[in-house]
Amino acid sequence: MLDDAKTEYRSLWTWLREIEFCQRWIDVDGVSTRIAEAGDAASPAVVLLHGTGGHWEVYAPTIGPLSQHFHCIAVDMATQAPSDRPDYDYEIDVYVRHVAGVLDGLGVPKASFIGMSLGAWVAARFAIDHPERTGQLILQSPAGLIATAENMARIRAERTRAVEDPSWDSIKAMFDHLIADEDNRIPDIIALRQAIYRLPQTRQAIDHVLILQDPDARERNLLSPEQWSAIKAPTLVVASGQDHGEYQSTARQVARFIPNAEGRTVKARKIGLTSRAMQQAVSITEPDYGVIFDDMFFDDGGIVPFERFIRPRVEVELAFVLDQPLKGPGVTALDVLDATRWVTPALEILDARIQMSDPETGHLRTIVDTISDNAADAGIVVGGRAIRPDACDLSRISALLYVNEAIEETGVAAGVLGHPANGVAWLANKLAPYDEILPPGQVILSGSFTRPVFAGAGDVIHADFGDLGAVTCRFR
User: How many domains does the chain have?
Assistant: First the structure.
């Protein structure tokens, strides 16, 4: 029961209810295998592979958007969920043969792959063994390069405990290491995993499922740097800031090894919707936040490629460059000022990937939607004159925002929660439940103190910060 009538209940059907998809079982070399399909079968195929002990429903939020452009095939890999569990150890070559059999059974000659942890490991090995059948890869928190006894022991202990005691609390505890944001540990996912772990065949097969957590078995299945380097498919490697260290390290090394891999590093963060006016404009009552990758920085006075964006907008902000780490809870504006080396003028480029409201239902987007859209963040331009945080009253800094020599917006930094340092403190405290810090050297956009203005091809954007100089860019 919901405590608050205004609280929006979230379930798998929140994402699946408006998607035309088919769940069915197919025979793959004698193994009854559960799959879900969505999208036009004539479109390019993309196969979605889950992690250890998972199931296709973990991709429920992803299937809808992908199915607009691809033939989506979400697979319960052999040994998992309601698929059959053959009586032998499930090493990587077993999974690869199973995935190849799924494609054969569906008549799909070639596919791209999105894999998570174990699924990424399987996708990478598939790309090595079957390059002619592999399109592109997205490897999320990939496993398969290194192994630590501590991490293997943790996974084995968590999964074994959950199978032996498939209570709600036991299953929910397992997800503490799988889904960083507690709000995303929705009851449906917990209930589904609980139902699977209660099956007698799950208990019977758990040692087969966890064979890759055995040091000797894992060692013989790991992919060498040379094997990772042999992957020819264009690859995007993704690692979450909340991942265990082993997965962070694996992701970074894999991105270096694969010739056509794209890796992105979080170089900055942003806080959005910090002013009352902006919250009212979008009907959201709290700030949001996002990350800024290294390839989202543009030079002051330089060219910003317009074709990179959908419908870009620009805001005026102050950027804080940290000299010391910040970790909540309990971070105050004074803590932020103590931890900051420089404060500098900046422009933020916004480019929302979601609509303000559902065109069919009229339902307005929520804070969950804006955060999933990375708070609409798309770029940053840092410039002007950097100052020490105690050089002036930061809340009194003002700016004029020009588009092609015409003043479109004006604002004062006090519009950001009363003081821009309050925005940074809010972010540090918001991240505290996820055991995440704001590290030294990171740039923090504290929040806009003007409304965003649209930028078109050929437009010159210029923000005049008075004594702190100016920041300029041109869209072309």
Answer: 2
